[in-house]
Amino acid sequence: MPAADSKNLPIDDVDRRLLRVLQEDGRITNQALSERCGLSPAACFDRVKRLRERGVISGYTALLDPEKLDQALLIFIEVLLDRTTDDVFAAFAGHVQRVPQVLECHMVAGGFDYLLKVRVSDMAAYRTFLGEILTAMPGVRETRTYAVLEEVKLTTRLPV
């Protein structure tokens, strides 16, 4: 019987427990993680290492408070391009990758081409972003802006 490809092993209940705890506290020690998940420290270390190697855990990060860093205004922007060709998509995507105010950019199906999630300090900063950065990107024909009045739910945790 051929050896199982470790990248294609299923996620079991123990892995899911580990992932839930790590999403809650990515800085937890291996000892504390093993205790919370009912594993030996060695087994816990091996499982987390395997989850990282398989790409299930793609990284660790610190979550920052945007208000304390003068980036309190959250904006969603629909972007409609002038043409929907591979070269225009590639040019737009390349430019968006280099813009730090853009937290997320998603190509979508529907009435527009991209949905952007942007953080800036205030409406004046957004006006500058819109006029000097976004509308200057290749292919941008039209935008629609949605300023967030209240963040009702914000999480990075996946339901595992």
UniProtKB/TrEMBL annotation:
Q: Which GO terms describe its molecular function?
A: sequence-specific DNA binding
Q: Which GO terms describe its cellular component?
A: cytosol
Q: Which InterPro entries match?
A: AsnC-type_HTH_dom, Dimeric_a/b-barrel, Tscrpt_reg_AsnC-like, Tscrpt_reg_AsnC/Lrp_C, WH-like_DNA-bd_sf, WH_DNA-bd_sf
Q: Which Gene3D superfamilies does the entry link to? A: 3.30.70.920, Winged helix-like DNA-binding domain superfamily/Winged helix DNA-binding domain
Protein name (database record): Winged helix-turn-helix transcriptional regulator
| Alphabetical UniProt keywords | Activator, DNA-binding, Transcription, Transcription regulation
- Pfam families, per database record: AsnC_trans_reg, HTH_24
For this chain's UniProt record, which GO biological process terms are given?
Answer: response to amino acid
Occurrences of domain HTH asnC-type (ranges): 11-72
